[in-house]
Amino acid sequence: MAKNGQAKVLSNDELSAVLDEIEHHRYPAKNALIIQISFKLGLRAQEMALLRIREVAALSDEFARGYKIKDVLVLPKSFTKGARAMAAVGNKTNERTSVRFTVAEFDRLVAQIVKDARRHKTLTAADYYPPMKKSGGLTRELPLADSALLEAISRYLDERMALKKPLRPNDPLLLSQKGGFYSPNTLQDHMATMLREWSGIDRASSHSGRRTLATNLLHDQGEHLKTVQKVLGHKSAATTTIYQDVTEQEVRTVLKKAGKNYDS
After folding, report:
1. What is the pLDDT of residues 146-188, one digit of tens each?
2. How far apart, in Å, are the Cα atoms of 219 and each of 30, 182, 209?
3. pTM assigned to the model
4. Which helix H or strand E contains 12, and what residues bound it?
């Protein structure tokens, strides 16, 4: 597998080809969402593997579709690179020994439990735990604004809802074939399979989405370095400058011009 810094940056045409190819394989709704999250939000494979439904949607019978997509995905510190996140993978997603609420949070919680009980909803304590707060990494707030990403989220959640199995906020957003959380390594391999084996894109890896997004923001859109740093969740802007390297397309253009000069 290509190293992170060597992962291929995909063009818009290549990304479209990947999404088209996915439709010819099993689980297209889930796989399209994986690619959309990677290329539109720039999440690392580890971060994607840990996503729960609660990160992207609120669940309630009050909503026409049974859920409402959130305006912002808040990625907890515990999910980011370098944090002790692996304990959250598998069946022990939210194993904890204590919880902490503010008075206002507790009042809202009690009101929600009363409302759910009146609707005869099955009450599970873990569904009402506040988000875990751990040290390490950086909390990232990523607006869910891209139309293709929103469509992919809706498509996959609609598919999950159609199975008539109750969804819970702490359920994995991306279900592995075993029905639980992906391990980061398994998700990395699966993404490489979609990009390289299915779509035939050499040097593409699970890091291609993150690198493509960063390259587009810095080179194509000319966004400020600090903005891109915040999107990627880098503690230091020096790390973000890695993506300021000359792109493959820029090198291709320069060499093409040089060839024409030789001919003149």
Report:
1. 999 999 999 999 999 999 888 999 999 999 999 999 999 999 9
2. 30, 33, 15
3. 0.76
4. helix 12-22
